[in-house]
């Protein structure tokens, strides 16, 4: 069966969200995703570490924003498949009245989001919009139905900006969304970088499989997304170095993935 009965879900073409799910130990993937995922691990054994560490970074960043920075609205763009400790669970765990809007355009993600991304508190709101991150204006229009754009919003791009075909387009997407949110809002993002030749090769080989290409950037190119915003301490760093918990000290793996949290003044 090459196509899941009119749902738009292709099981014959690998998909980055499902491969990422496989690397993180999830079950929401097809044989083609596992095959490509294993081939990618042969090229870059660190990619599964990047997948796991990226979720740890998300947890720490969202917890900081909800608990310390007072964020109550989150716009998570390019959500991917639900795994453990998703944005709404972390945010509502720290601040029960948090509102979270997830954005993705993958039919499998949509199906799982409807089933799994449900409120963890009575006071909060958890919503999902089916939209392509290449069309930030549509994302903003849809998100206005749930979020209050006169109050601060945390905008999240967690390991997805490589799907923008050019660096200029990547910056356009980020800036269009950030221009729409008010002062006091935050930008959270991370991405893999060209520091690792294995990662670069992995992305090149993945593009040959028929999956949506992913274009790794330099550290400076990723950091440029934060231009004009005030980086929160410790700044733009490897994601394993962003406010690690005490239990993580001394055992943090070195991976070519950088990110940060910044505030719009």
TrEMBL record:
For molecular function, the Gene Ontology terms on record are:
methyltransferase activity
Q: Does the keyword Chaperone apply?
A: no
Q: Cite the Gene3D superfamilies for this sequence.
A: Vaccinia Virus protein VP39 (3.40.50.150)
Keywords from UniProt, A to Z, are: Methyltransferase, Transferase
Q: Which GO terms describe its biological process?
A: methylation
* Superkingdom in the source lineage: Bacteria
Does the record bear Acetylation in its keywords?
no
Entry protein name: SAM-dependent methyltransferase
The protein's organism comes out as Streptomyces oryzae
